[in-house]
Every structure is written in C-alpha cells, then in structure tokens.
UniProtKB/TrEMBL annotation:
Record-annotated site: Transition state stabilizer: E137, K215
Keywords carried by this UniProt record: Cell membrane, Lipopolysaccharide biosynthesis, Membrane, Transferase, Transmembrane, Transmembrane helix
Pfam families assigned to the protein according to its UniProt record, in alphabetical order: Glycos_transf_N (PF04413)
Protein's UniProt name: 3-deoxy-D-manno-octulosonic acid transferase
Mode of membrane association: Single-pass membrane protein
Pathway: Bacterial outer membrane biogenesis; LPS core biosynthesis
UniProt entry tagged with the keyword Cell membrane: yes
Compartmental location: Cell inner membrane; Cell membrane
GO molecular function: Kdo transferase activity
Function in brief: Involved in lipopolysaccharide (LPS) biosynthesis. Catalyzes the transfer of 3-deoxy-D-manno-octulosonate (Kdo) residue(s) from CMP-Kdo to lipid IV(A), the tetraacyldisaccharide-1,4'-bisphosphate precursor of lipid A.
Length: 431
C-alpha cells in the first residue's frame, strides 16, 4: 500500500510539472494568484499560526462556491443553536475564496487548500493544528487523509455525495480507495444512493450515515418579493418585465440558451435574459457569443447608474450574486444540464419560490432533480424546442408559475433537518 501512495504522489507531481507553464503564466498575469500560491504549498502567514495556536480550530474544506454554500449553511446554523468552536475555511478556487470571506465572516481564516503532496500537507497541518476536519461533499485527498490519521486528527465528510460518474472512476482503483476511506471517521451522506456507492467503495458501514442535503436547511426567503424589488432596482429592470435567469452555464450551452431566447422574444418582446457563466473567466467569450446571435449584452458590473433598463442580455461577471439574483427571475434555468456536465444544484432558485427548468443531463443531482419534478416544482426539457415551449407556456401563465414556486418551497420544507442531524453526529469529536 505504501507503494500505491508513492505512485499517487509521483503521478500528481508529474501532472504539476506538465501544468507548470500554465501556472507560471497565470502567476505573471495575476498578482493575487502569486499570493495564493504560497498557501497552496502549505506556507500560511506566521500571524495565522500565532492566532490559531491556542484554539485548535475546526478545519472546513470547501472546493468552490457550491461547497462553500453548504459549509456556510452548516456553520451558521451550528452557531445559531449551540456554541461552535473556532473554524478555518479552505477552498481551491479564487471564486470560492471570495464567497467564503463574504458568507463566513466569523471564520478565523480563509485559506487555500494545500496541494496533496506529503511535505505541503504536513506543513499546513502544523500551522492550522485542527481538532477536526470537515470535507464538504466528496473531497478524497489520499496524502492529506493519511497525514490526518497519523496525527490522530478526526476527519468527517459533510453533505457527502458521490455521483455515478465519480463512483465508476473510483471503482477502477478500489483497493487503493478502500484503504483511503478507512482513514475517514464519519460520512454524512445526502442520500441512500450516495451512501450505497460509498459503501461499495469500501467505507466502514458503522461510519456511514444518511443525513440529507445541508442546502435544504438554507434560510427560506420569507420576503422574496422585497428581495426581487431590490435587485430590479439594482439592475434597472422595470417591475413588470419578465426575466429568465440561466445560472452556471457552460460552453456549448450558451448558444442553445441564446437561440431559445431569440425565439421566445418573437412572442415576448420585452423578455430579459440574465446569463451567468459557471466560470467568470468566460465572460468575454460569452459576450462574443451573445453578439454573434445579434443580441445586445451588458455586463452586470458595467450597468450605468440611472439607466433606463433597455437591454436584452445581462451577463453576470460578479462573484457570489447568482443565488440572490434568482429572486428577480420569472423562471430559472440550471446550467450544465443541456450538455453532458451533470448539472448543478437547483436548490438556490427553489429557495426563492421560482419555477426551475433544466436539461436532460442532471446526473450529479439525479435524486434531487427527480424529487422536484415529481413534486411539480421543476420541469426537465430535452432540447432547444422543448425549452422554448415550456418557457413560453410558463410566461403566459402566471398562476402556473406561482403554483410551481409554492411547490418548490414545500419540497424544500419537507426535507429540512440535515444540519441538526450532521451537528449531532459531529459533536462527539468536539466535546
């Protein structure tokens, strides 16, 4: 087994060497990336070491924006109902780091997660000295987990999920993954399917629990209409104007959505599209795609003060605003689902009581998407024509939109409680 860890570290090092020219180019272009790189190799500021030394915080790792959302739900609800120890948050992406700083201001620090090589992992653990580590969703880092086990630091997976696609990949190296999973002390999985896949890979059955999805416990927006009015003022959108919000879109999907939007505007001439690419660095590319469809686009950050709202497409180029922007939509669409990317989480638009649509590829959220469709809170579309037909039908029928929105809120309410179940399981590690 030691040989397998060595092989893993060698392959990871080789991959980093091959990727190093791109890393160096990014460091030259962005000074913030140079600063973050020292943290990625486990070199955290001395001031952080001095601040954390007496407290032994909980370390919460959340890769990017979606995982940060789940972590913030847990941390905020935990602190609201009982004392919570100090905690540190780590992310992998810059956008995740920005959102973590805003949504978790009570964190002792927000840092980058170290590259999973022994020296870097040991250096980071020596600085943070955590009492407990929480890995959000499915973060399986062999060297990090091995170092935690050797240092007798308990590790738990929270809001755990394991898609069929990821399961099939891990199964190819099951003997190694089985050994790695033995180093995790607790698995708080979202669904029975997630738990079954984790067990099939070799997780200890006594440590695997089905607790539900933490995001169901996000605060419901009691006054969505007020929030919508606030965003309409911010974005200079007339009160009566209908809006389609397409969140977390990917290359190859923007073109389909824009074609559907062009068709819809034949009947709904005042319809506005808010297009939010999954990765902010794609904004310029998305603007070019919009122009290629003969439509006028404006970046959210470039909206002029006091404008008259005469725009066709708003491209979201800011970080951390999409979840709030769903409130302004008449209808929401979940990206990553018209192409084979497995979809994205549909709970954020549902929290605002909005009808949710998505394409045929929701493999990463198959149970949640099926549940919302069964409850009449979401619609799955097959292609561009189907998307146009369903959106047009809902735009014509405000009563149907309201009914779907209420069904979404009811579906959320029926599955709350994951936070309490998770905290109860975690308390034995911190008491």
């Amino acid at each position: 087994m030691t040989l397998m860890y060595a092989a893993y570290s060698f392959l990871l090092t080789l991959g980093l060497l091959c990727w190093s020219p791109f890393i160096l180019l990014k460091m030259l272009r962005r000074s913030s990336y140079r600063e973050g790189w020292s943290e990625r190799v486990g070199r955290y500021p001395q001031a952080l070491f001095l601040r954390l030394r007496p407290v032994q915080p909980i370390w919460i790792h959340a890769v990017s924006v979606g995982e940060v959302g789940a972590a913030s739900v847990l941390a905020n609800r935990w602190r609201a109902c009982r004392p919570m120890p100090s905690f540190v948050v780590s992310t992998v992406t810059g956008t995740g780091r920005e959102v973590a700083r805003r949504s978790l201001p009570q964190a002792a620090a927000v840092v980058y997660f170290p590259i999973d090589l022994p020296m870097m992992v040991h250096r980071s653990l020596a600085t943070v000295r955590p009492r407990l580590i929480l890995l959000t969703e499915t973060e399986i880092w062999p060297n990090f987990l091995r170092a935690c086990a050797n240092s007798k630091i308990p590790v738990a997976i929270i809001n755990g999920r394991l898609s069929e696609r990821s399961f099939l990949r891990y199964r190819l190296i099951r003997p190694f993954i089985c050994r790695v999973l033995q180093r995790i002390d607790l698995f708080c999985m979202q669904t029975s399917a997630d738990a079954e896949r984790m067990l099939a890979l070799g997780a200890n059955p006594e440590r695997v629990h089905i607790v539900g999805n933490l995001k169901f416990d996000a605060v419901l927006h009691a006054d969505t209409s007020s929030l919508a009015e606030q965003w309409r003022r911010e974005l200079q959108i007339d009160a009566q104007r209908q809006v389609l919000v397409a969140g977390s879109t990917h290359p190859g999907e923007d073109e389909v959505l824009l074609e559907a939007f062009r068709r819809l505007r034949g009947e709904f001439q005042d319809l506005l599209l808010i297009l939010a690419p999954r990765h902010p660095e794609r904004v310029a590319q998305v603007e070019t795609t919009v122009a290629g469809q003969g439509l006028a686009a404006v970046r959210r950050s470039a909206l002029p003060r006091g404008g008259n709202g005469a725009k066709e497409v708003i491209v979201l180029d800011t970080v951390g605003e999409l979840s709030g922007l769903y409130a302004v939509g008449s209808i929401s669409f979940i990206g990553g689902s018209l192409i084979s990317r497995g979809g994205h989480n549909l709970l954020e638009p549902a929290l605002h009581g909005r009808p949710v649509l998505f394409g045929p590829h929701m493999e990463n959220f198959s149970e949640a998407s099926a549940y919302f469709v069964e409850r009449g809170a979401a619609i799955q579309v097959n292609d561009t024509t189907d998307l146009v037909r369903q959106v047009a039908r809902l735009l014509r029928d405000p009563a149907e939109r309201a009914m779907m929105g209420q069904a979404a809120l009811a579906a959320l309410a029926a599955h709350r409680g994951a936070c309490e179940r998770t905290v109860t399981l975690l308390e034995r590690f911190v008491l």
